[in-house]
From TrEMBL:
InterPro entries xref list: AAA+_ATPase, ABC_carbohydrate_import_ATPase, ABC_transporter-like_ATP-bd, ABC_transporter-like_CS, P-loop_NTPase
Keyword check for Cell membrane: yes
Pfam family, one: ABC_tran
Keywords, sorted A to Z: ATP-binding, Cell membrane, Membrane, Nucleotide-binding, Repeat, Sugar transport, Translocase, Transport
SUPFAM superfamilies: P-loop containing nucleoside triphosphate hydrolases
The protein, known as: Sugar ABC transporter ATP-binding protein
Domain (ABC transporter) ranges: 6-241, 252-496
Keyword tRNA processing: no
Domain of life of the native organism: Bacteria
PROSITE patterns the UniProt entry points to: ABC_TRANSPORTER_1 (PS00211), ABC_TRANSPORTER_2 (PS50893)
Amino acid sequence: MNEIIVSMNHISKSFPGVKALDDVHFELRSGEVMALLGENGAGKSTLMKILSGVYTRDDGTMEIFGKEYGDLTPKQAQEVGVAIIHQELNMCRHLSVAENMFLGRELAGKFTLDNRKMRQEAKRILDDLKIDINPDQTVGDLPVSKQQMVEIAKALSINAKILIMDEPTSALTAKEIEDLFRIIRKLKAEGRGIVYISHRLEELAEIVDRVTIMRDGQYITNGNFADMTMDQIITNMVGREIKEKFPRVSCEKGKKVFEVKHLNAGKMVQDINFSLYEGEIVGFAGLMGAGRTETTRAIFGADPKDSGEIWLDGQEIKINCPMDAIKHGVVLAPEDRKKDGLCTKLSIRQNLALPNLDMICNGLGVISSGKEDKLCEEAIQNLRIKTPNVEIDSGNLSGGNQQKVVVGKWLARNSRVVIFDEPTRGIDVGAKVEIYNLMNELKKQGIAVMFVSSEMPEVMGIADRIIVMCDGRITGEVMAQDTTQNEILTMATSFENKKIVS
């Protein structure tokens, strides 16, 4: 049996109004990959932030490599050999890749920083990981997937013996995931312990040895992954049986609600044409960099358009900025919820109310507390947002509950078109089903639903019609029930054999 390198017992942690951890136990052994599983808000990230020195504990004991430690600082945790890759990227966007990788432990010459040596070392690490990124490139100019890989490279660069990965694959392509798994197997063979937090349960069989499951801030169980079925894991995570992973409702296809004609916006949105109808959900599939997110942003007015027309209920509408879109009833739940979807320093109440001030203010511009309370109560109830009250800062919520707030702020509006960009990224299996049910409810109400997803089973399981993009263009359009994953992947990588359904 491998040596126990981390032992955490009776760990408790509270935040204002929230009991995040309650008497939690956790062990990690050398040379193993331990999956730490649970719904959003279960306390997984909080527990690992205590181990990595980000948070202090209220109670409990912690041993690392057989030595008992009190509360660590992040720097002390690094010195002990603990590195964490956070679910939400925490990088200095204005600095270069190399500067981010060596932030806080810069290499110095006699009188100045040795920038050349840091660039060389950063390039060596990136090359070892087979990551094609220039160390001099500004991090803020990189797509989310590349930023995630820089985070991984940064964590590995400190030669960590205990590596915590919190949703590391949420923004990675299939090829990047393969590279990550290759790296994980190499680290495991070297005797390092890896804590792997992921809501993509299908990934676990590739790399995981053991599983620890948490629910509502409490330890539930642990065991060998090979001894557990997926149904057992899910039931322990959510406390109930999930009978249908992709709930689908049948609706009669109604009239055309929304149409995009010859939309062009930069290099990644080229001559986009499609329509959305009542009673259907349209999924946008494609590989990373296909132009799907850029298309949603151009439609919503977040990015400028070069040309094209947008029609709603048979009338052409002009959308030059997000406010124009919102006024017309076209809303977007964006891919990067932390950067584009939330004001993390504001409360849940303020985030829900902010885009709906026109609905909750009286004629004098004064907010009606009654209308605001009703808006918040409905969002909390309908989406099952886990929070003791609506005054909690949204930045203190788990990733999945943050996503629910982003979606919830649009529910109060009589929106005609709802666009979801990667709505279930970083969300647990129970919360995913709630998002799917929400999309189905919108569909039944005759609201046009468009959603972007990088998870092929999700697109095929929820969408009625699938539009495929590659290199900024639509390369195929099929009915979900009449296609296969291979056919979609072929269209996602080729301009040939374009197939369209009316």
